[in-house]
Amino acid sequence: MKALALFSGGLDSSLAIKLISEQGIEVIALNFVSHFFGGKNERAERMAKQLGVKLEYIDFKALHTDIVREAPHGRGKNMNPCIDCHSLMFKYAAEVLLEKFDASFIISGEVLGQRPMSQNKSALNQVKKLSGYKDLIVRPLCAKLLEPSLPEREGWIDREKLLDINGRSRQIQMELAEKFGITEYPSPGGGCMLTEPNYSKRLKILENDGCLYEEYSYLFYLLRYGRFFRLDEKKYLFVGRENDDNLKISEYKDKGSLHIVSAGIPGPAILGIGNFTIEEIEFAKQIFSRYSKNKGKEKINVLVNDNVETVSALNLKEIENKIKKYIILGN
């Protein structure tokens, strides 16, 4: 018998796999990949190797983008539709992947009470119901606190060997990790950009501008880097803060209508998305000058769409006021 596991690479999902594989069941680890979490990474691969399980990356980007936009059961504190997201992963695993991998049921590392909003008993039951396959979902870390699933009732797995962990303490999990010889596990939390307040604030702007669709998915990645300016609806500037930002922003050069980089004086890479007026292009050049090494104090040359153009010395008070008008700052 085989089981599929929702697998982030973290400790809880790893322990869930261990509890089931210790009962002689082959477990296949599924790392779901959206625009906001998951994807090929050393952490998940190292952990899968420790556990001795096969790791499969499951691309569900388009489906997940729809869920983020529609969020039929609401969002958390930020842009995270956790209940709909979790139920989508279970549903996809059941409808598409059980047959593909010849598996019989699905497990996850969720712990009752660990996250007050998305992992209380009502939320866990709601996720099961929304998935449409509630009887095939097992949560080994807190199974004894929940109604028995079909695999437990039918004796596919021994319910007595499952656990009753409740709450936010990680002590039991850490003791289990030591018992099972699981090392180098990451700290809890993180991993999903939708739970990040500053990122969510930026993404909400895209949503309000009608850009929370798959065709604009490149913007979801650009939002992660540097400074973000909104000049008007669907008209954005992405401005690097450091060299890594500059490199990442420039990778999306072909997606933009405006690309500004250094022509001698070190400064940020700037990518403009949208149809810009002459005045807005001039403003983007001034932003480069303001954040360049000379801080806008002297006339400089810049490369604008691969052409050398000049930026005069700035009126610093004026440009600072204009920057404050358009820049999207964190919470």
UniProtKB/TrEMBL annotation:
Report the coiled-coil segments: none
Q: Which PANTHER family match?
A: THIL AANH DOMAIN-CONTAINING PROTEIN, TRNA 5-METHYLAMINOMETHYL-2-THIOURIDYLATE -METHYLTRANSFERASE
Name all Thil AANH domain ranges: 2-142
**Pfam families annotated for this entry?**
NFACT-R_2 (PF18297), ThiI (PF02568)
UniProt superkingdom: Bacteria
Which Gene Ontology molecular function entries are recorded, alphabetically? ATP binding; CCA tRNA nucleotidyltransferase activity
- Record's keyword terms, sorted: ATP-binding, Nucleotide-binding
- What is the protein named? tRNA-specific 2-thiouridylase
Residue ranges of every copy of the NFACT protein RNA binding domain listed in the record: 226-326
Family annotation (InterPro entries) = NFACT-R_2, Rossmann-like_a/b/a_fold, ThiI_AANH
Query: Which SUPFAM superfamilies does the annotation name?
Result: Adenine nucleotide alpha hydrolases-like
